[in-house]
Amino acid sequence: MQVTVYMLRCADGSYYTGLTKKPAEARVWEHNQGIGDGYTKSRRPVELVFTETFERMLDAIDRERQIKGWTRRKKEALIRYDYAALPDLASRKKQ
């Protein structure tokens, strides 16, 4: 079973991170249709900006939680696939 962690950029500029067993594009369509009463319903339209696929649900859940705890700058580095910048953007890193 493949599980995709995805990140959306909402119309208000905020980011939403979720996971799905469906194709990510199908999930984005649902968000844009306002299906469900979640975070994105009042922030449409949304745009898919990042995906990462996992074979195990637990790995996807862990990654989703990790990303949700990140700062905006760190999420934007991930969106750019700038993995080298991620350690320097750790919120707990002393500056």
UniProtKB/TrEMBL annotation:
<dbReference type="InterPro" id="IPR035901">
    <property type="entry name" value="GIY-YIG_endonuc_sf"/>
</dbReference>
<dbReference type="InterPro" id="IPR050190">
    <property type="entry name" value="UPF0213_domain"/>
</dbReference>
<comment type="similarity">
    <text>Belongs to the UPF0213 family.</text>
</comment>
<feature type="domain" description="GIY-YIG">
    <location>
        <begin position="1"/>
        <end position="77"/>
    </location>
</feature>
<protein>
    <submittedName>
        <fullName>GIY-YIG nuclease family protein</fullName>
    </submittedName>
</protein>
<dbReference type="InterPro" id="IPR000305">
    <property type="entry name" value="GIY-YIG_endonuc"/>
</dbReference>
<dbReference type="Pfam" id="PF01541">
    <property type="entry name" value="GIY-YIG"/>
</dbReference>
